[in-house]
Specification:
This protein is α/β, with parallel strands linked by helices and 508 residues long. The chain contains 23 helices and 14 strands.
């Protein structure tokens, strides 16, 4: 049983959703908590979160941490949006939260936010056919998506979130504010149309806390439709407009007293509602669908997908490793050397992800190439790297298609001697994207191979230490490393050429 925590550090509120995922991969809610911290209240005026607001955020994370520990959650993902993206002191707060709770916050872009929202909407609405749209109004930004047969074809983030509008458009009274707000949102109509187009949509989904509240006030139960699933509500645009005017005509306190709104919702619901209404009008729909899901649900589902991919990839990796070792043993592989080089290569790969930008699939290919790089010695010591290329290319490896096998073979070919070049037939036959992969993996493999130059496994582990203009490799080793140091000085040129950074062994 897997338990996942999804934390949405929003501009208006922070949300923590805990779910349990069984073998059916369906999430079951354990706890769902919302804390109205309102990070953006100062950010959009001063550019900073501020100490007092940061303290409230930290307090909320302590609560989340207690929930996570109590439910023995195994996977935590916390993301921050608009306010964190803009606050100059966001890094300070992020460090405080990490140091005191152990929870690492990742600041995501507007496009990443849109992806997660699309994932959430896809769990509640059938977006697999036709042209559909979605709008999410947060505290600091508005994400608008246009999808075609389930794929996002346009995604834009606009700086007109509900909290931001409250701070940017002060009025002399509620009515004045409503007039000013309507005029402002109308003024950006051209920006939205330019960015998103005006082609008809089969439906428009709306997410965010304010639209859920508006659905409570003005929505219908889900109408019969092939796109709708359980729990989705509908708000006709005409009724939405009527309710927005009704809310604009009364004070903040009256909204709380008459409709039972929370204080942190009673003020933002008006600007949010106007944005939903105007986006609906731009796209020419007569209603919006409210699935009652959002960023945190998308984060949970994305995490579940990621865990499933990792599981499948790990199973593939185990099968591939067995197949690779079987091939190596057929050609009298120096197995201790091969495995040590593979371990060192994977360690370098993991510690330099920001340099190479590759993923788990490429990591698996690197492992295969590292284990097999010397199989050509079975044929001849001379030009054995070329023989390795041939043997790998012509062998079946479980789980690898022709393209992947070609990458493994080519990486193995470049563990020594010449740098990758289109003068070589095998490298030239690859796509430009795969050539870039081969260059990066070959550079890492060559650096790892140097660290076991004597084939005696003196180097047990390697730690990457980053400098301003170079990478230093700190080695845990047994005995002297004279030959490895000599080889390193001669063999680092590929790494330095590919990654544009100096590479050296750290002095003891």
């Amino acid at each position: 049983m897997t338990r996942v925590a999804a934390i949405d550090v929003g501009t208006n509120a922070m949300r923590c959703l805990l779910v349990e995922v069984g073998e059916d991969h369906e999430p079951r809610v354990l706890e769902n908590v919302r804390t109205p911290v309102r990070l953006g209240s100062h950010v959009f005026l001063t550019g900073q979160i501020g100490r007092a607001t940061g303290d409230r955020a930290l307090e909320a994370f302590h609560v989340f941490r207690e929930m996570i520990d109590r439910h023995e959650v195994t996977h935590i993902r916390a993301v921050a949006t608009s306010a964190f993206r803009e606050a100059s002191d966001a890094g300070v707060l992020r460090d405080r939260i990490r140091d005191e709770t152990g929870i690492e916050i990742r600041v995501i872009s507007g496009s990443e936010e849109a992806h997660l929202i699309r994932r959430a909407i896809g769990s509640a609405l059938d977006i697999s056919r036709g042209r559909t749209g979605a709008v999410d109004v947060g505290g600091g930004s508005v994400e608008v998506l246009v999808m075609k047969d389930g794929d996002v074809v346009r995604a834009e983030s606009f700086d007109m979130g509900a909290v931001r509008l409250l701070e940017a458009l002060p009025g002399d009274g509620e009515t004045d504010f409503f007039t000013l707000l309507t005029e402002y949102v109308d003024a950006i109509r051209a920006r939205v149309i330019t960015a998103m187009g005006q082609e008809p949509l089969s439906f428009l989904a709306a997410t965010g806390g304010s639209i859920v509240t508006l659905a409570d006030l003005a929505g219908d139960e889900a109408l019969e439709s092939p796109v709708l699933r359980e729990g989705v509500r509908v708000i006709p645009l005409a009724r939405l407009s009527k309710w927005i005017r009704k809310l604009a005509a009364i004070s903040f306190h009256e909204r709380i007293e008459q409709f039972g709104l929370r204080e942190d919702r009673a003020d933002v619901i008006l600007p949010a509602g106007v944005v939903y209404l105007k986006i609906g009008e731009i796209f020419g729909v007569d209603r919006v669908y409210v699935p009652s899901v959002g960023l945190k649900e998308g984060l949970v589902l994305d995490t579940i997908d990621d865990l499933a991919r990792r599981g499948a990839l790990e199973e593939l990796r185990r099968e591939l490793r067995a197949s690779v070792l079987g091939l190596g043993r057929r050609y009298d592989l120096d197995e201790p050397h091969a495995l040590r080089v593979a371990d060192l290569a994977l360690s370098l790969f993991d510690q330099t992800r920001d340099l190479h930008g590759l993923g788990e699939a490429e990591r698996t290919l690197l492992e295969a190439a590292a284990i097999l790089h010397d199989v050509g010695l079975y044929i001849s010591m001379s030009k054995h790297h070329k023989h390795s290329y041939y043997l790998i290319s012509e062998s079946d490896l479980v789980g690898l298609d022709r393209r992947e096998r070609a990458i493994v073979a080519t990486v193995g070919r470049y563990h020594r001697k010449a740098h990758p070049t289109t003068k070589h037939e095998g490298f030239a036959a690859l796509s430009s994207k795969d050539r870039a992969v081969v260059e990066r993996l070959s550079a890492i493999l060559r650096a790892a191979d140097v660290l076991d130059r004597e084939h005696r496994q003196k180097v047990r582990a390697v730690k990457v230490r980053r400098g301003d203009d170079q990478i230093l490799l700190e080695l845990e080793a047994d005995g002297d490393l004279l030959l490895e140091k000599w080889a390193a000085r001669r063999k680092v040129s590929l790494f330095e050429s590919v990654f544009r950074v100096k590479l050296a062994l750290a002095e003891e």
